Amino acid sequence: HYTEPEKTVPVVEEYKKLRRMLLRERLDFSLSVKLTQLGLMFDENLCRERLSEVAEDAVPENVFLWIDMESSKFTDSTLRLYSELVKKYPGMVGICIQSILKRSRDDLERLIGIGGIVRLVKGAYREDPTIAYKSKEEIIKSFLNLLGMLLKGSSRFALGTHDDKLVEECRRLNREYGRSVEYQFLMGIRDDYK
After folding, report:
1. Structure confidence by residue, pLDDT tens digits, 118-166
2. Per DSSP, what are the bridge partners of residue 3?
C-alpha cells in the first residue's frame, strides 16, 4: 500500500529483475502484481504507467502476468486497469476474482465477455456485510457458482484455494465438464498438495 510515487519505481525494477532471473534459470513461471504497490492507492494513472512497464517487460518474453485483487475499495479500478491491459495483451494477463464479494458474478460475466482469464479465490479481506458474504457456506456456494460460470464460458482459468473439500468438489466438476484446470496454492500454506 505505497502512498509515495518514488516507492513504486523500485517495485517495477524488482519485477523486471525477478523476470530476468527466472528466465535465466529456465523456470516455468508467471508474475503476480499487487496494484497498491504500483500506486493505485493514490494515483490510478501512475499505477497504469507502472503496470504497463511491468507488462511491457514480461509479456514480450512470454511471461504471463496475474493482477491480484485487493480489498473492495480497489475492485473497480483494478477491473478497469485489467480491462485495458487484456485488450493490449490478450491471453497473457489474468485477474483474481473473490467469491466473498456479492458483485463478483456480474464482474465475472463481464470478464468472460472480454476474454478475461481469471484466478478464482474465496477472498481474504474483511469486507462490509452489505457487499460481501460472511458465512463459510455462502462463500463456498458463491465460489462454486462462479466456477460453474468459468467451466461453461471461459477458455482458461485458475483456482486458488487451500480448502480440501472445495478442491475435491472442484476436481469433480472439472471431470464432469472434461476441463483441464490450473490449481494455484500459496507456498508454505499447504505444501502437502502436489
Report:
1. 999 999 899 999 999 999 999 999 999 999 999 888 888 988 887 778 8
2. none
Alpha-carbon torsion (65, 38, 188, 121), positive or negative = negative
Phi, psi of 191 (to 5 degrees): -70, -10
CA atoms within 13 Å, Cβ hemisphere of 117: 19
Q: Classify residue 171 as left (phi > 0), alpha (psi -120 to 50) or beta.
A: alpha
**pTM of whole model > 0.85?**
yes
List pLDDT tens digits, range 73-98: 999 999 999 999 999 999 999 999 99
Dump the DSSP string for 51-77: HHHHHHHHGGGT-EEEE----GGGHHH
Residues with Cβ within 8 Å of residue 88, at least 6 apart in sequence: 55
- Angle, helix 136-153 to helix 104-113, in steps of 10 degrees: 10
CB 177 within 8 A of CB 151: yes
Residue type, 52: S
Under 8 Å between Cβ of 97 and 69? yes
Amino acid at 10: P
Cell of 48: 497504469
Which residues contact residue 139 at a Cβ distance below 8 angstroms, ignoring those fewer than 6 apart?
Answer: 99, 100, 122, 123, 133
- Does residue 184 surpass a pLDDT of 90? no
